[in-house]
Amino acid sequence: MKQNLLITMSLVSLLSFNMYSQNPGNVPLGLQMWLKADEGVSLSGTNVNSWTDQSLNNITGSSDGSTDAQYTADGINFNPVITFNGDNFYNYGTPALLNINPSLQTLSIIAVVTSDQTNGGTVISKGDNATRNFQLWFDDTDRVANYTLGKSVIDGGRKSGTFHVKNEPKINTGVVSILPNPLLRLTSYVNGVVDAIDVNDGTGSGTVATTDVLVGARRDTGNTGSDEEFHGDIAEVIVYNRDLTMLEIQQIESYLAIKYGITLGANDELWDSATSTSSSIAYSGTSSNYYSSAGTIIWNGPSNAGYGYNVIGLGRDNSSGLLQIKSTSSSVVTSDIVTIEGEVGSFINNNSFLIVGHNGAPATLTSTGTPDRTTSMFNRMWKVSEAVSETGLMKLEFDLSTTSISDGTASNLDLYVADDTSLNNYKNYPGTYDSSTKILTYNLIDLEDGQFFTLAEPNVLSGSFSLLFDGVDDVIETGLDLSGLPEVTIMCWVKRTNDTELLQTGIIGQPGIFGLSVLGDDLTVDFAGNIVGGLNLTQTGIGNTSQTWHHIAATFKDGNVKMYFDGELVDSVVNVLGNTVLGLTSAATFNIGGNVTSILGGDNFEGEIDEVRVFSIALEDEQIQQMVYQEIEDQSGNVSGSVIPKAIKDHATDNTVDWSSLSLYYTLNVVRGNCIVDGSDNFLNGSLMNIATGSLLAQGAPMPYTTTSDGLWTDASTWENGSQWDITDLPNKDWAIVHIKDNVSTTASHKHLGLIVDANKTLTINGTNELNNTWYLELNGTIDLKEDSQLVQTDISDLAVTSAGKILRRQEGLSSMYRYNYWSSPVGIQNTTSNNNDYNMSMLEDAAGSIQFVSTYDVPVTSPATLSTYWMYTYINGLTYYDWQAITPSTNIPVGTGYTQKGPDVAGTEHQYIFSGKPNNGEILISVTDTGGVGSVPDVSKTDYLLGNPYPSAIDAHQFIDDNAGVTNGVIYLWEQWSGDSHILNEYEGGYALLNKAAKVRAYQFEGISGDDNGSQDGTKTPTRFIPVGQGFMTEIIADGTIEFNNDQRIFKQESLGESVFFRQNNPSAENTTGTEEEDVMQLIKLEFIVSNGVSRELALAFSDLTTDDYDYGYDAKLDELNPNDLTTEMNGEKYLIQSFSSIMPTKEIDLVLSSDGIESYTINMIETEYIDDDVDIYLFDAYQNVYIDLRNANYDFTSEISGEVADRFKIVFSQGDTLSVNEINSENISLYLDYNTNKLHVKGLNQSVLEVGVTNMLGQKVQTYRNISQDKIENGLKLQDLNSGFYLIDLKLESANTFSKKVVMR
Question: How far apart are CA 123 and CA 66, in angstroms?
Fold first, then answer.
């Protein structure tokens, strides 16, 4: 065995002054040699070639033995040593400053060594066998330190003590006073305790100036040879040429004790040289004081009485060259189990020390006297002294290999830190246990002066909790500091139980920096100790109507503060106090439930708090809303919801939230002793202060809103915590997350961020209501959409692929077995591996059950209803009538593809079907091929595809058209069969209505098999912009590509209000209605062309600033079949049924093309206008008759003697030109001009008064009107109101009933 030994010897001698920049214990005076293994060592590998002292003398000793000593990097307490084996020593020559006569001069020798306890040997010497100045050595048997001082022929010069140097470090100090008696001059101490003298020859006068100073041996005879070679390790040797004062000795010993893990003041055994035996020494646990190099006490032994066992230290002392950032006890007799190491950033301040000692109790567990929420604790407890300067954070390692603690128990042990031995309000820190090394590690621990720590097994409570604060002294302390941050977000759930407190009540925050609190009935944001934002809580449910849960949040960025209540932005303050960063200083860190400001005197919060989060960034509104009603978790480095497994994202910027920006996160799901586990990566676990176990309550906040029993949505008993939630108050927050675990029904519309429906449970939407999902739907049960209720999922809403559930969606079709409906399914086959699956007719139901099928023309009347498979078809990339593809009940119909069926012949005009299956959602792509190629000739080049609305909600036809530009012709064709009871094609009474972005046109009677019509517009329904659930429709494919349906097209529109129209048998209440539509404003003129034989044509002209006079996709619709007598527009040689133009202006002219067989009479009338002001004139100009017809007030009847196409006769115009109408006068003698200097209108040559003057701008808007103006006044100038620069049309209505118009310019 080796023994660690710290030896100090002080002798009275003559003074020699020596100063150096760094000195042991900052004691420079008289320093002659300072050898330390961590400096001045010259190596070849691990061989020590030489060892240079670090005093001002800079003496180098060269290896002089038969071999070199070895360098051991980790020798004592993580510091290096020089290892000697009896064959090595180092020769420092004969420096005069070390030629000390111990009978006349003072001398101090201090050494830290480890003897192997077998052979002993010399640490340092000057002399030989017969005569020597000084020698520090160990006998092979007595195991005590021996000093030989001034040996000569007549003087033995030997002194040895009684403290047994066994297996651990000792500090021996010999002090010789200036007394004449040489036996009394040397007083010995071991570790600061007076050592009784066993052998004392006194101090002799022997000196040998010519003998070398050796380290590791002494000279044999004269200055030759060597003897008493050392066996062991030498860490440090210090030599002064004077005796040191007691304080100086203590400073040096403290430096060495800290560096080498030695306990000052502790001795374990006495050595009896007579019997060569040792006996134990009682030690009470009171160590000596430890001192800094400035003489300041850094560990007070008496004050820390009982905690002086295995004292270890860490510290920085620049004057001593000390930087010890890792330490453990060097004792092996009373060994300890702890190693302490400074973390990165620790001990950056000079004179910073952390000293720790324990109470001497065994390293075993006890269940007696444990603090709150603790199963067992160590009997051994440590005490901390932090001195002079802040030391920083520590890592603590406990070696449990010598204890009886099992691996299972060890892995559950926490580090407990408290201000008293009872461990009241302890802070506990979970660690990590390595079962292979038996090492238990705790990181980032802040140990403060006077604290105690130990190991204990805390009670671990797992679940979903909230904490009840008593409003007196309950608080959660954290180590989070917000100072200096440029941006931040803080948030939590809160339920206030006392709304009568007049003082400002803190909720969460850092005093003087940033926080949320309540002042009276106002929720406030506190910034730099000032209230900068607020919300009156009596309006929200947390004030005078307390006992309800609410989410609160605040952000700071760029000097701006925002406050949120239940996810809604309720207040914002711009450039608050001119700050762009949070305050730089605070007396405390972030806390929960305590005071966050000093305004009006602070108070603690009374009520419950849950789910506390702090981010080092300012979250956007959407990001906050996405996480209000759910906990969060790390998903590949991004913050994700734990209920909705999607990354939190601001979709306006596409920015996610880095998990690293989460500074602190307390879910309160795990309470470990007094520790609230931090869910962020920063390990800032919270500590419960003064909070009793009974204050830990079941989670009450809605994360998410969850049902617990069957019932109505608006019944509080339906919900898990309904009396404390706002879920029954409709409408809910748009960003709410709802979990349906029971059978729930509602009669209202709902919009939610997330919806989860459990297996075998049903959410029933009664009436006609919208169920809107904006982010996530997990459907394992059933959503029953009654009547015209619809499920709308927005563009970022996902249906979980693993959803095993279904929806039920009803839609009515024709009951007649002779009449077709075009259908499309809003659902697909149920599975848990894919969405937007195929549909087949065998899935179709009605109220009585699954639909039945026969293959005959006609069907029997049954319940459930029966359909004929003979009339079931789809049409995919078809050209001709023969491209209709028959389907069977088992045929899988791709999503978004339409199909046909006839009715079941049940009573009534309609029959209700039920679509049951997995709802379609999101992007749906259908590959299409333009089979016919270039052109749009029926049966030749016109390719059609039967599509259909694939969603359980209406879709916006305009958006569908826009999304499929370049693939379709931009027109939707809707089949209507309004009458007839025959299966014979030529007897069908039906046809296709047209719909595009400009207009909607009723159907014409279908004729033949090629898409012709007979010119009779008999359709009873006018399409609307919105296509209802289940509606199939035709569209023309103009290029190979992909048809796209997506959630942006989805919208809630009601058939009962005429907002969408399902094309089945006419419902009189909805006949010819367009409903209410939210669309881009298109000015519309609908003309009706009627032939005397009853054939008619509806022609639509549309105008806007979005369209041009050239072809506009989605706004123009070509005419498929020209009748012998017809009226159309023409563009690029093709006829159009719907044509769009740029905005209406007085000068705009629209050419109409008449087709005539020359034998009929005709009528043109205007049957409808939309979004055109009543004062905008609309004329039909007949160039052949040279007349203008005011279509607002008259129809125009005419005949045509020309057979064929007439393209130069008719125009639609918006002002009358110079041509005479039946009411005009000759304007040859009339002069009209506008004097823009005086803003007066002059008209000369009228010879009569004027009934009305109208001023119309180029947008067709009449901007000014004047009436009853005399001839004299208008000749001398009519003062007009101010006009903007531009062209205007002046219209005069004269007393004679004639009219006159002229265009003028205003500059």
Answer: 17
